[in-house]
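for ur thesis appendix - ParA family protein. copy paste whatever u need, i formatted it the way the template wanted (i think)
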Amino acid sequence: MAIIALVSAKGSPGVTTSALAAALSWHRRLVLAECDPAGGSILAGYLGGALDGPRGIGELAVGELRDGNLETAFWSQLVDLDAPKRERLLLPGVLDPAQAGSVSPLWQRFADFFTGLERGVPPYDVLADCGRLQVGGPPWPVLRAAAIVLLVTRAHLPDLSATRSTIRAIQRDLTEHRVPPGTLRLLVVGDGHGTSEISKALGLPVIARLPDDPRTAEVLSLGGTVRSGRPLMRAAGALEVPVRALLDRRRARLAWPGAVQPREVTAPTTPGVSGAV
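the 3d part is after this line
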């Protein structure tokens, strides 16, 4: 399914929580990539820091700038969220915002590599947590390469107001870079204005709505046992259905990406991914 990017306008509407909930519920092989320049939070939060050393996109960036070894180093930087199955993998984000300086010049390189994972052996989808756009060095190349961009927003007026300007910024950038239309959708979190009201006001379809579920959100943020029957996990598990349906419709309409096939990326067959949980 290529790249599915999640991004927000401002504040904390729940991009990382939504992305992690979806990743833990996904039915296809998946890499959850923390591409937020402000820093990743899953290692220290959900995984409780239980790793045997530095890992993630910051380490990949340093190695790529020094040795150009992204293809070989990528798999060693992942964390198996459901070890040892290697079906739900995490690429942790930068540990320190200062690392973002090493990552920013490589966003296009990472975007191209992520795109190739869909046709790898075995294939992987990529959920890219791109954080807030209003930070230094946002990962625009990842958004442009995404098959679908989900703009995460809460349903209250201040959030919707900020989201409106972000919609314009994303649409302007995607148009300037000749990305086919129909990429952008809203993912609404929590109570507030109605779904149809939000869609009409912002001029953009709502692909799904995730409920407020403080107990599950706390587990996903701070660690603990994720219960699949909780409201947030059920809704996140159902998100894959409209995402896949939208992607199928876009590909049928645009005959994309059949004309140009991304380069394949082969996952290692020997154990190279450590499980932290």
